[in-house]
Design goal:
2 copies of one chain form a homodimer. Chain A is of the alpha/beta class. The first copy, chain A, contains 6 helices and 11 strands. In chain A, the strands form 2 sheets. Chain A has an 8-stranded mixed β-sheet, sandwiched between helices. The first copy, chain A, is globular, with a radius of gyration of 16 Å.
Chain lengths: 192, 192
């Protein structure tokens, strides 16, 4: 999506450690209109696909998911909560996710009440890099018996292999912008 | 807002400790259409008021804030991040907030880049009870020199005194539903 690529070029800051700072429109401050336009693009890519629920992870995924839910006819958003504690109750599905940024494991949990084998879900997030968080959501979906119809992320870092590994598994992955290469004090190159 | 009151009566669950569980449409699963309608109501209450930014706290405030931002002509959303660590960098405004639910202090932080004395802001959250989180956002706004034009929350627990204390300070507070009284296994009574 050119609008998003242009915004990343204009306002994104590449930090050491392959970090792309997009706090001015996605991760801290949010441009809701940009997300709505991105969501309309996702809807076109999944035209005719039955979606009963949008599933994401707190916190930065929520804004993207709400825009996507609206574009898909106001289906419910369901966001996985992050738990540092290993103590989990029996009424949740969970998965353990490795955080590359913070070098620690954390659990993501979804209440069993809100996800079932009747659900056909679209997984949504702000970033897709190594795919750890996304694979955690997929594990939860499998445990719930829900069908993953596809994945939509705002920004994919293709030089980390999460997105392409998911595509190789046969999952339909759409990204608003796919970054092939970026470097500290250098250019950001998008997949064409 | 009758639609929200009806939804709370239908799907809200009162738990011991004055906890209202609304995980099915607000805190875990989100009904985006309901939030959009609530946001339109808030817009009517603040008709003609100049708003440059919607400010909220992660995670449950983000969905409400995105709907409100849309209703106010797509002004940016800015969400405060929660930090358990006391170590904070110089480039943030912060406030220390007491969490009644978790019986601990946490810091909320907003980057100095995104809030200034030019801003006229609307504070948004999912819940208003004792007002601790809201007072934290107000402290941050004061430190940034931003003007607080008002507060919009989905659900206010009036039996805790946060909302009325803010009104007594002269702040325009709008709540989608104001609960006067609720009890475990009992009725939920709204302010008329």
């Amino acid at each position: 999506m050119k609008l998003l690529e242009d915004r990343i070029k204009k306002d994104g800051i590449v930090l050491p450690g392959n970090i792309l700072k997009v706090n001015s429109f996605l991760n801290h401050q949010i441009d809701v209109d940009l997300l709505d336009k991105l969501a309309e693009d996702f809807k076109k890519s999944f035209d005719g696909v039955d979606i009963t629920k949008i599933v994401t992870i707190e916190a930065s995924g929520i804004a993207v998911a709400c825009s996507v839910a609206r574009a898909f006819g106001n289906v419910p958003v369901l966001f996985a909560k992050k738990h540092k504690s290993a103590a989990l109750s029996d009424d949740v599905y969970y998965s353990t996710v490795w955080s590359h940024t913070n070098s620690c494991n954390y659990n993501i949990v979804i209440s069993r009440e809100y996800l079932s084998s009747d659900d056909k879900i679209l997984l949504v997030d702000d970033f897709l890099a190594n795919g750890n968080a996304m694979n955690g959501l997929i594990e939860i979906a499998e445990n719930a018996g829900a069908k993953v119809q596809g994945i939509c992320v705002a920004i994919e870092k293709a030089f980390q292999s999460g997105g392409d590994a998911l595509r190789e598994k046969g999952i339909h992955v759409e990204s608003g912008a796919i970054i092939e290469k970026m470097s500290y004090n250098g250019d950001i190159i998008f997949r064409s």
